[in-house]
Amino acid sequence: MISIKEAIQLVKIHTQPLLKEVTKPVEKAGSYFLNDDVSSPINMPPFRQSAMDGYALNLHDELAYNLIGEVKAGDNHELVLKKGEAVRIFTGAPVPDSANAVMMQEKVKVNGNIIVIEHQLNQEHNIRPLGEQVKQGNLALKKGTKLTPAAIGYLSSLGITEVSVYKKPNIALVTTGNELIEGGQELTYGKIYESNSKMLLSALYSLKFYDVTIHKVEDDYRQTLSKLNEVIDTNDLVIITGGISVGDYDFVGKALKELEVEELFYKVKQKPGKPLFFGNKQHTSIFALPGNPAAALTCFYVYVFIALQSMMNQEVLELPRVMAKSVSNFNKNGDRPQFLKAIYNDDNVEILEGQNSSMQQTFAISNALVFAPEDVNEIIINDIVETILLPV
């Protein structure tokens, strides 16, 4: 049995970036990371552009101007202004080359074809210059940038239709257990509704990992062996729940050994989630999580999250940790470090009741995990505690 620190370090060391390139249509590349620098194919804006609704002017020494026309967004004709002439113009419209300032409409009085501005303007006032955001051929976004909705909009505004991104891992979720049945079926004696696959699938989806398949096996060795062999051979990451303990019908560990999966660790000194396995086979990472739901989800956030970020070649691998003031008391039993379900709000954190590894109700309202180290047996109100912030 190893420490939490050792386990986290082993996951970091032995989970490598996929570094596989795929090309995605820009509208489907959200949450991916750029595999290459992207240079702008155009100037943005591609012409001198009005920053507001108003009047484009060819400046002179007077406040009065002759109004000779109008330019709206999308117009592709260019009016030529002499000194002392103006055109009505709208936000985003191309500013004629002969105009050298734009006065906002609120500061203009109009009398037929004569306009009077409130005060003199500086050259290029309220005009967005050609290439203000980015010039043609210059770097638009650098390699490794996460493509947020704003980044997708920006690339689209440059006329870019597809991008090279890092491939995301394809992931298999495997649940084990004869006692598990699907929701909607009659809950007969001895059975429980399966929830781990849906819980972990939701966690993966919330992190924008969508290439996920779900597999279910009964507590049968040959079936377990066959299914694990299949998913390890065809996925970048395999997450198993249940069957990793030492009971007579826990076959996962035995199957992984027969499949020659390299065991990097098995069992971590922590609560919940002690019977946690991590290993590799060729280029596939394998986690076997405890079957208890709260333990499985805790291990996902503390360890699997790191593996996912590493596969995506990210610099920051762990969930954020902050120091927060406890607003509740807690007595820890035993000498294992513990991850406690909690609610974090504005630098305060409430440790919740119901910390058993099977308790999903408490986890359902949590947004954080308080870490209680090995040498801490009691947390009291106003203690400062290390708090892991969970994804929302």
Automatic annotation (TrEMBL):
Q: Which UniProt keywords apply?
A: Magnesium, Metal-binding, Molybdenum, Molybdenum cofactor biosynthesis, Transferase
Under the heading SMART domains, the entry gives: MoCF_biosynth
Q: Which pathway does the protein contribute to?
A: Cofactor biosynthesis; molybdopterin biosynthesis
- The MoaB/Mog domain extends over 172-310
Question: Which principal EC class is assigned to this enzyme?
Answer: transferase
Indicate yes or no for the key word Magnesium.
yes
Q: Which InterPro entries match?
A: MoaB/Mog-like_dom_sf, MoaB/Mog_dom, MoCF_biosynth_CS, MoeA-like, MoeA_C_domain_IV, MoeA_C_domain_IV_sf, MoeA_linker/N, MoeA_linker/N_sf
Q: Which SUPFAM superfamilies match?
A: MoeA C-terminal domain-like, MoeA N-terminal region -like, Molybdenum cofactor biosynthesis proteins
Query: Catalyzes what?
Result: adenylyl-molybdopterin + molybdate = Mo-molybdopterin + AMP + H(+)
Its Enzyme Commission number(s) read 2.10.1.1
Swiss-Prot/TrEMBL cofactor(s)? Mg(2+)
Q: Which CDD domains does UniProt cross-reference here?
A: MoeA
Can you tell which superkingdom this protein's organism belongs to? Bacteria
Any idea what job this protein has? Answer: Catalyzes the insertion of molybdate into adenylated molybdopterin with the concomitant release of AMP.
Family matches, as NCBIfam families = molyb_syn
Q: Spell out the PANTHER family in the cross-references.
A: GEPHYRIN, MOLYBDOPTERIN BIOSYNTHESIS PROTEIN
Family of the protein in this entry? Belongs to the MoeA family.
Protein name, per record: Molybdopterin molybdenumtransferase
Organism of this sequence: Flaviramulus multivorans
